[in-house]
Amino acid sequence: MVLHLLKPTIAYHVSTPNIIVANPNWPGNLEQVVKPLLVTLSVFVALVSRPTLAASCDSATTQADMNVCASNANQKSDKQLNDLYRQIVGLLAGDRAALELFNSAQRAWTVFRDSECKFVGSAYEGGSIQGMVVSNCLRTLTDLRVEDFRRFVACEEGGNDCYAEFVPPN
Questions:
Q1: Per residue in 91-128, pLDDT tens?
Q2: Strand 11-16 to strand 19-22: parallel, antiparallel, or no bridges (unpaired)?
Q3: 66, 148: one domain
Q4: Residue 35 — pLDDT band, cuts 50, 70, 90?
Q5: What is the CB neighbour count within 10 angstroms for residue 158?
Q6: In 3-state terms, what secondary structure has residue 95?
Q7: Residue 19: its pLDDT value, please?
Q8: Residue 31 lies in a domain
Q9: Claim to verify: residue 75 and residue 150 sit in the same structural domain
Q10: Are residues 66 and 103 in the same domain?
């Protein structure tokens, strides 16, 4: 039995069912043939197996599409948060103590957000919906933090509305 790869002149002889021996008369290197094939195959598999995203997240019907949409929405919120964070760092640049407190608060908030959403997602452990639930939780909490940051950035010096409003429960 003879296997032909790429060119009919490149022949490999099968000496046993599991062993392929290169034809000693062929001047080429086996790696020169196999590596490009493996790369091409890997790219093809990656493209084919990649979940397709619905034209609009409003019309997403598969769990894979909904997971991607939730992740994208979370990334968008996270970018807004990071942009505002950089603005606040710039505003606090002259007050080292306030900047350190702000950074400490942000680190603690990030730990809270991530832990809270991990907890919320744990109810769906192993399920295909878990990623969407976690992403939606992260986005919701991040959007709340974005609003806090927007109030801070819009604050006039000496104003009472510089920080998030804390209303005691009834």
A1: 999 999 999 999 999 999 999 999 999 999 999 999 99
A2: antiparallel
A3: yes
A4: low
A5: 6
A6: coil
A7: 52
A8: yes
A9: yes
A10: yes
